[in-house]
Design brief:
Mean pLDDT: 85
Number of strands: 5
CATH class: Mainly Alpha
CATH topology: Rhopdopsin 7-helix transmembrane proteins
Radius of gyration: 22 Å
Protein name: Olfactory receptor
Strand content: under 5%
Number of helices: 11
Number of domains: 1
Family: Belongs to the G-protein coupled receptor 1 family.
Keywords: Cell membrane, G-protein coupled receptor, Membrane, Olfaction, Receptor, Sensory transduction, Transducer, Transmembrane, Transmembrane helix
CATH architecture: Up-down Bundle
Order of helices and strands: EEHHEHHHEEHHHHHH
CATH superfamily: Rhodopsin 7-helix transmembrane proteins
Largest sheet: 3 strands, mixed
Helix content: over 70%
Membrane topology: Multi-pass membrane protein
GO molecular function, one term: G protein-coupled receptor activity
Shape: globular
Strand order of the largest sheet: 3-2-5
Structural class: mainly alpha
């Protein structure tokens, strides 16, 4: 690109998955069904937690926040994809792209920090059960979630302001389904050294740091469970962690897959598909993981559906 062509862009072109017109109805239906499933599933989890007094505990308070974040995470990308497919246009305005990038950073950071806080909650519940209510009290829960929001907002704001300081060239194509930070930064014509440095530092903060905390928590949890004498006691103790551990594994495995695919292959389509896994698929599967592997959630959902259909939760089926 010639230095003389530097200008402020009015819009970007998102290349998407495929330009094949015959595939567009299938892709549209797939994204729409996944989005509706994600929103409905996470809303049901939220309603179940709010409506059941037995679930007004720290663990489910954090879970309700995670469900809210997952709805926002998916809503940042999928509606725009659906509009682009419906209108046969892959354009996104400069302001829209920067806004989408900001909220992607915000919700991905919140997901990471909330999963870490939930791991700490399980660590205290299993390793220090007699002191759980003293350590994990209401104020600590509120402060933890507030801290997650503050740090995520600051990180997102930092990257967004730094991206606004870049100069872009004309005919900007983003080989992706949405405006991801790395893709936007590397479309710039100006020097991106500080942006790249900030991205690497943030990667350590959002990935390695929280992951180390989660692994440490589960190392302590497994050590405590091994000390339980009965097999039934071990199963009961670990069963409270299986849902969270499944969500953590899914989130980090898909996130790792994105960066490995981008490092191993230059095929942008493969990288875009991998990105869909943690931005769309993981938020969609989280409600299923918690509802299928958690008896308290299943009981609350049965009660919620029973009230919605006009029967009490204890009423026999007709």
């Amino acid at each position: 690109m010639e230095p003389g062509n530097v200008t402020w862009p009015s819009e970007f072109l998102l290349l998407g998955l495929s330009e094949d017109a015959e595939l567009q109805p299938f892709v549209y239906g797939l994204f729409l069904s996944m989005y509706l499933t994600t929103v409905l599933g996470n809303l049901l989890i939220l309603l179940a937690i709010v409506s059941d007094p037995h679930l007004h505990t720290p663990m489910y308070f954090f879970l309700s926040n995670l469900s809210s974040v997952d709805i926002g995470f998916t809503s940042t990308t999928v509606p725009k994809m659906l509009v682009n497919i419906q209108t046969h246009s892959q354009l996104i305005t400069y302001a829209g792209c920067i806004t989408q990038m900001y909220f992607l950073l915000l919700f991905s950071g919140l997901d990471t920090f909330l999963l870490t806080v939930m791991a700490y909650d399980r660590y205290v519940a299993i390793c220090y059960p007699l002191h759980y209510t003293v350590i994990i009290h209401r104020w600590l829960c509120g402060f933890s979630v507030l801290a997650c929001w503050i740090v995520s907002v600051l990180i997102s704001l930092l990257h967004t302001l730094m991206a606004l300081g870049l100069s872009f060239c004309s005919h900007l194509e983003i080989p992706h389904l949405f405006c991801e930070l790395d893709q936007v930064v590397h479309r710039a014509c100006s020097d991106t050294f500080l942006n790249d440095l900030a991205i690497y530092v943030t990667a350590v903060l959002l990935a390695i740091g929280p992951l180390a905390g989660i692994l440490f928590s589960y190392f302590k949890i497994i050590s405590s469970i091994r000390a339980v004498p009965s097999a039934r006691g071990k199963y009961k103790a670990f069963s409270t962690c299986t849902s969270h551990l499944s969500v953590v594994s899914l989130f980090y495995c898909t996130l790792l897959g994105v960066y490995l695919s981008s490092a191993v292959t230059q095929d942008w389509c493969s990288t875009a598909v991998a990105s869909l896994m943690y931005t769309v698929v993981t938020p969609m599967l989280n409600p299923f993981i918690y509802s299928l592997r958690n008896e308290d959630i299943k009981r609350a959902l049965r009660g919620l559906l029973g009230r919605a259909t006009g029967r009490g939760p204890a009423d026999p089926p007709r």
